[in-house]
């Protein structure tokens, strides 16, 4: 969804003389798309639009390589996570906790991308609530599959990236209960933050979205690509889309992106080691 916002600005503003095409490559927790870019020619025509799960997948053993195999192009924005449910289930997170504590059977929580950052944040959420052993943890192939499961009532509650679920919240088909951002989001200003409902928000890591090029892509191409993304992220249409869909522009060049991921990698590995969640 967020990549299509970029495509819209490029197309409507005529920023390129060639088509800018967004392709969602399914399968293997984004691994198929990652491999496609990793093996592509380093000519700037095939790029990876991906986030912090590049780190989480490696840290949790989904694959033995991550962002370090690519050439970093640009850091784009940050995406918070949300806790959400079917509107017939709970009015707030406390109601979910109450049902779990009362010994409800078969209570489940859904997430997307097995081994990714959203999956890890689900484990953190349940661990902080002290209900990890009482809730069935279910992973779905992606945000769309997760929405389908919650709409059908297959899971009691879910966690996902805000832009993937906000339209369902606005339509009333799903209900967002809390958001991981440090402050309330303009797009859902009536929804409390994790901190407001008593969670330690510092343990939850935001999804940082970046753009990556195939290995050995020359610097002149990287620089030209960065200039393009800088124009897009600073454009009023993109900023308006960010406010509407619930993500925060956080522009930086390839060095900034690498630095952000290096710090997130350290935080994720430290947390997983200290928490014992993977034991």
Tell me about this structure.
It is a single chain. By secondary structure, the protein is of the alpha+beta class. It folds into 2 domains: 148 residues, D-Maltodextrin-Binding Protein, domain 2 (3-Layer(aba) Sandwich); 123 residues, 3-Layer(aba) Sandwich (D-Maltodextrin-Binding Protein, domain 2). It contains 10 helices and 9 strands. Strands 5-4-6-3-7 form a 5-stranded mixed β-sheet, sandwiched between helices. The longest helix is centred in the C-terminal third of the chain and has 22 residues. The protein is globular, with a radius of gyration of 19 Å.
Quick description:
This protein is α+β, with helices and mostly antiparallel strands. Helix content is 41%, strand content 18%. It has two domains: 2-79 and 206-275, D-Maltodextrin-Binding Protein, domain 2; 81-203, Periplasmic binding protein-like II (D-Maltodextrin-Binding Protein, domain 2, 3-Layer(aba) Sandwich), CATH 3.40.190.10.
Q: Which fold does the CATH topology of the largest domain refer to? A: D-Maltodextrin-Binding Protein, domain 2
Instruction: Compute the separation of the termini in Å.
Output: 34 Å
Number of strands: 9
Instruction: Provide the CATH architecture of the largest domain.
Output: 3-Layer(aba) Sandwich
Find the structural class using helix and strand composition.
alpha+beta
Largest sheet: 5 strands, mixed
- Coarse morphology: globular
Question: What's the name of the CATH homologous superfamily of the largest domain?
Answer: Bordetella uptake gene, domain 1
CATH class of the largest domain: Alpha Beta
Major sheet strand order? 5-4-6-3-7
Task: Calculate the mean pLDDT score and round it.
Answer: 91
**Global Rg:** 19 Å
Beta-strand content estimate: 15-25%
What's the order of the H and E elements?
HHEHEEHEHEHEHEEHHEH
Specify the number of helices.
10
Quickly count the domains. 2
């Amino acid at each position: 969804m967020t990549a299509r916002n970029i495509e819209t600005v490029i197309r409507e503003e005529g920023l390129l003389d060639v088509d800018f095409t967004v392709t969602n490559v399914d399968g293997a927790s984004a691994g198929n798309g990652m491999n496609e870019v990793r093996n592509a020619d380093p000519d700037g025509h095939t790029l990876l639009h991906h986030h912090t799960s590049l780190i989480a997948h490696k840290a949790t053993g989904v694959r033995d390589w991550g962002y370090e195999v690519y050439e970093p192009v640009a850091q784009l924005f940050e995406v918070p996570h949300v806790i959400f449910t079917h509107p017939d289930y709970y009015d707030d997170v406390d109601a979910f906790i109450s049902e779990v504590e009362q010994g409800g059977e078969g209570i489940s929580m859904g997430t997307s991308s097995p081994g990714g950052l959203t999956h890890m944040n689900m484990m953190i959420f349940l661990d902080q609530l002290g209900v990890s052993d009482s809730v069935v943890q279910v992973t779905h192939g992606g945000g769309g599959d997760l929405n389908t499961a919650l709409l059908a009532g297959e899971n009691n509650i879910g966690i996902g990236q805000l832009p993937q679920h906000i339209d369902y919240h606005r339509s009333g088909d799903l209900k967002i209960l809390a958001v991981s951002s440090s402050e309330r989001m303009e797009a859902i200003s009536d929804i409390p933050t994790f901190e407001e409902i008593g969670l330690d928000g510092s343990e939850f890591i935001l999804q940082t979205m970046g753009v990556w090029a195939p290995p050995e892509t020359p610097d002149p191409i990287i620089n030209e690509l960065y200039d393009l993304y800088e124009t897009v992220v600073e454009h009023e249409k993109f900023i308006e889309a960010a406010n509407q869909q619930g993500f925060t522009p956080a522009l930086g060049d390839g060095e900034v992106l690498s630095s952000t991921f290096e710090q997130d990698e350290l935080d994720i590995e430290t947390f997983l080691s200290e928490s014992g969640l993977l034991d």
